[in-house]
Design brief:
7-stranded parallel beta sheet, Rossmann fold, 18 strands, Domain 3, Saccharopine reductase
């Protein structure tokens, strides 16, 4: 029997764990789910005889290493900063490691050790990054194999709210890590456009003018932190344009630009929130920072601010010392929540322009996935299923790759994308 350790049982893990447990009998698997909160693990296993729940404090070296040592493969759903502890254990005990998080410098330094141990560390194996890489590389390699020369690559992806659940002025509800939502874009963005390198600062990143159509719906986008790093990984050095972005509703972008202009994502100053209403905080923050001229007058933004309680003089925040960023996160989690009947939606679009036989062509490939409810979300589905599929294909010998990788090679993307299609995660291609 093959042992799989899933470390972390948060929102994005539900489809991952269910898929592994559903296939445990036929594939001879046992799944251990470990989380800092035992109840999270117990709930995800839901009494399945092929699963075991464990309480895990990642800083408990003995318990952590005990769980890794008995596993054949480890899937880390922990916060990104904690992956490295599992990575060290996986190298020590020669275990494969999968995660949806970005490859960081700490794990890159382990590349030689990973190869020497003849194990696979597969990073960026979720939605974005993950499905975006796999679907893009399928298109890129197919175009190149057919004699096309790619001159422009644009990739867009967003976790959104489904139309039937879109009932607030932000046109958004939180379906993943809220800390990532409030901190998105703070590092600015770098990308290539019409042959020039563009560096956009945080205060200019959110522009409602950046728009794209997907299935007759209009979205706005903002550029991701560092698109340039993927030019090498995708081997698209000759492209005039290369950019990866995040999709949002145009009104969301307008509102978030106002949030940024008012320094409401600041993480340097702390305010005492005990006895302070959201309206008190908002006025105090604006007055102390001399931001009166930045106050919005757009009716859409005023409605958005009212919706997240910036003008509410009622219930006090009472969270002790908080930064404006933490207060904003608290208010968003309170007001932009997915209710039990709500559905989220994932939208992804690749736009690839290429030259062939003297003519210019444009291929667009889009994906739309709608969640079932606030637990079985589209976000959880598209983050978790690629990891689950890859794990089972590594254990049964279908994927034999070793070393440190992201899923940009055919051995991974052909297998995983084929299985995803069977599960309803399927792209539609338009050739122009």
């Amino acid at each position: 029997m093959k042992e799989i350790l899933v470390a972390g049982a948060g929102k994005s893990s539900v489809f991952l764990i269910e898929y592994l447990l559903q296939h445990a009998a036929e594939k001879d698997l046992h799944v251990t789910v470990a989380d800092a909160f035992l109840k999270n693990a117990v709930d995800k296993i839901n009494g399945n005889k092929y699963g075991t729940a464990e309480k895990l404090d990642v800083n408990d070296i003995d318990k952590r290493q005990q769980l890794v040592r008995k596993s054949d493969i480890v899937i880390s759903m922990l916060p990104p900063a904690l992956h490295i502890e599992l990575a060290k254990d996986c190298v020590l005990f020669e275990k494969h490691l999968l995660t949806a998080s970005y490859t960081d410098e700490a794990v890159k330094k382990m590349t030689e050790e990973i190869e020497t141990r003849n194990i696979l560390f597969l990073y960026e194996m979720g939605l974005d990054p993950g499905i975006d890489h796999m679907s893009a590389m399928q298109m890129i390699h197919a175009i190149q194999k057919d004699g096309g020369k790619i001159i422009s690559f644009k990739s867009h992806c967003g976790g959104l709210v489904a139309p039937e659940s879109d009932n607030n002025p932000w046109h958004y509800k939180i379906s993943w890590n809220p800390a990532n939502v409030v901190r998105a874009g703070k590092a600015g963005a770098s990308f290539k456009e019409d042959g020039e390198i563009k560096n956009i600062t945080y205060d200019h990143l959110f522009s409602p003018e950046n728009k794209v159509m997907v299935n007759d719906e209009l979205y706005s986008f903002y550029a991701n932190r560092d698109s340039l790093a993927y030019i090498d990984l995708y081997n698209l050095h000759d492209t005039k344009t290369f950019v990866r972005t995040t999709l949002r509703h145009p009104d969301f972008i307008k509102g978030w630009a106002a949030i940024v202009e008012l320094h409401l994502t600041d993480e340097t100053k702390k305010l005492q929130t005990d006895g302070l209403s959201p309206a008190d905080f908002f006025k105090k923050h604006v007055d102390e920072n001399g931001l009166q001229k930045a106050l919005p007058d757009d009716p859409i933004v005023l409605e958005q601010f009212a919706f997240i309680d910036f003008y509410d003089d009622g219930e006090h925040i009472n969270r002790g010392l908080f930064t404006p960023c933490e207060i904003l996160q608290y208010l968003l989690e309170k007001n932009l929540v997915l209710t039990p009947a709500d559905k989220d939606m994932i939208v992804m679009l690749h736009e690839i322009e290429f030259e062939k036989n003297g003519n210019t062509h444009l291929h667009k490939s889009s994906l739309v996935v709608t969640g079932d409810d606030n637990i079985h979300t589209a976000m959880a589905k598209t983050v978790g299923l690629p990891l689950a599929i890859a794990a089972t294909k590594i254990l049964d010998g279908t994927i034999t790759l070793r070393g440190l990788h992201i899923p940009t090679v055919p051995e991974i993307y052909n297998v995983v994308m084929s299985e995803l299609e069977k599960l309803g995660v399927k792209f539609s291609l338009i050739e122009i």
